[in-house]
Design brief:
302 residues, mainly alpha, single chain, 66% helix, 2 domains, 14 helices, elongated, Serine Threonine Protein Phosphatase 5, Tetratricopeptide repeat, TPR-like_helical_dom_sf
């Protein structure tokens, strides 16, 4: 699994943040928006449907009639910034205009939860810009979120994004710095829903960036204990853990991992190959009396 897939892309993160803020689920058809809705609700409905150009037109007009003193100004400004950033075709002017709106939100509503989202979005814009110091700019934004919104979910996201930014350099020292950042985060987030994600990402950094399997296995095992971030991919995660254990000469541990995969995930495409590896390990370690699990019979339909 690509470790960067653990970190949500800027677009999805931004729109999901907007949904949380408004306390609403996405509507199936934005075109069905009732005429009685106010412009802000209508614009957000278009954003939820990823209709950025329509959202931009609606929200830009709405912005002419509100001020920072209005309660809805942070939400309206953030929504307009998203629409401006993502409208098609993408232009540098659109990105620059979105940055102005994000900065205005951070400046005029610094304690609002959407200010944290705006800082993260500014970091994503900076990170993928052509500036020579793009990574440093992005990391500075992520650090501001951690400093100004400590202990919040947005601070965790910012830490993960900072770690990703460091790792993208492929510089060994920066990868180690990313690991230190995440290991510190595991202590701060002990028992939270984020532990599995953080531990799995640390494992990926050790294995794929530093080629160090022992600590990778330790952290991946911790992710397994706390729960892998994508439960639908648990069989894939177990397969990866078993492969690492075999490569690190931890054959008996690998056999246990592969057995769990076969028994707990009967529909997995990795089931048959995992069972073959268990058989190989059992032959190499007859003294262990390893039990070979049977593949479950999977029937189509009910």
């Amino acid at each position: 699994m690509n470790p960067h897939k653990l970190i949500r892309c800027a677009l999805i993160l931004s729109v999901v943040t907007l949904l949380w803020t408004t306390g609403c689920a996405p509507e199936s058809e934005s075109s069905s928006t009732e005429a009685t809705q106010d412009p802000l609700e209508t614009g957000i409905s278009e954003l939820r449907a990823f209709n950025f150009n329509q959202a931009h037109a609606i929200l830009l007009e709405h912005a002419q009639h509100i001020s920072p003193e209005d309660l809805d100004w942070p939400l309206a400004t953030y929504s307009l910034a998203l629409a401006t950033w993502h409208q098609a075709p993408s232009t540098q002017q659109g990105i620059d205009d979105a940055k102005v709106l994000f900065h205005a939100l951070v400046e005029k509503a610094p304690q609002h939860n959407l200010a944290a989202s705006a800082l993260i979005d500014l970091g994503r814009i900076a990170e993928f810009s052509q500036a020579d110091d793009a990574a440093a700019q992005a990391q500075a934004y992520y650090k501001r979120v951690q400093d100004k919104f400590p202990g919040t979910e947005m601070a965790v996201r910012a830490s993960l994004l900072e770690a990703q930014s460091l790792a993208r350099s492929f510089d060994e020292q920066q990868v180690k710095q990313a690991i230190q950042l995440l290991e510190k985060l595991t202590k701060e987030q002990a028992g939270s829903q984020w532990i599995g994600t953080i531990e799995q990402y640390i494992a990926h950094l050790y294995a794929f960036y530093l080629d160090e399997l022992e600590p990778a296995i330790t952290h991946y095992s911790a992710a397994k204990e706390f729960g892998f971030p994508r439960s639908s991919d648990t069989d894939l995660s177990l397969w990866q853990l078993g492969l690492w254990q075999q490569e690190a000469k931890q054959d008996l541990a690998a056999a246990e991992t592969f057995t769990e995969l076969v028994e707990e995930h009967p529909r997995s495409v990795y089931g048959s190959v995992a069972r073959k590896r268990i058989i190989e390990i059992a032959k190499q370690h007859p003294e262990a009396n390893i039990t070979i699990p049977e593949l479950a019979e999977v029937r189509l339909g009910r």
